[in-house]
Input
Amino acid sequence: MTDSAPPSAAADSCLFCRIARGEIPSRRVYEDEDLIVFHDIHPAAPVHLLVVPKRHIESLITAALEDRELMGKMLLLAPRLAREQGAADGFRLVINNGPGGGQEVFHLHCHVLGGPRPWRQMSTGR
Ligand code: 5GP
Ligand code: ZN
Output
């Protein structure tokens, strides 16, 4: 999808597209032209952020070679935001892909988890 293309039917109703467009509120910690980052509504750890591309990509299963720069940007942003949000000594990155991978929101996102234990077990989507 180019910037000028209208949103697809999927993007129209997609939860994270709606959050990215500001139609649904979120606790944002970062935004640029490609990405938004906000707190997970049901945190599994003291720090639980979602790094989300603004463009609707369903998962890594449907991501394409042209998305590689965006993927790299998502990964490289995680350490900085984890540290800024209080995960001082490291963090875990989780990407659930497809129903079999426990994905519940079908818009690609990285979970950034950190902070003192205990952590809640993340949903497996089952
Ligand atoms: P998945 O299982 O798809 O990898 O993760 C989806 C995540 O989105 C879950 O951790 C869930 O708590 C979070 N989530 C679902 N709905 C909302 C919402 O409306 N706002 C925010 N901030 N997070 C949400
Ligand atoms: Zn979407």
User: Anything to note?
Assistant: The pocket of zinc ion (ligand 2) is lined by residues 11, 14, 16-17, 56, 107 (CB under 6 Å).
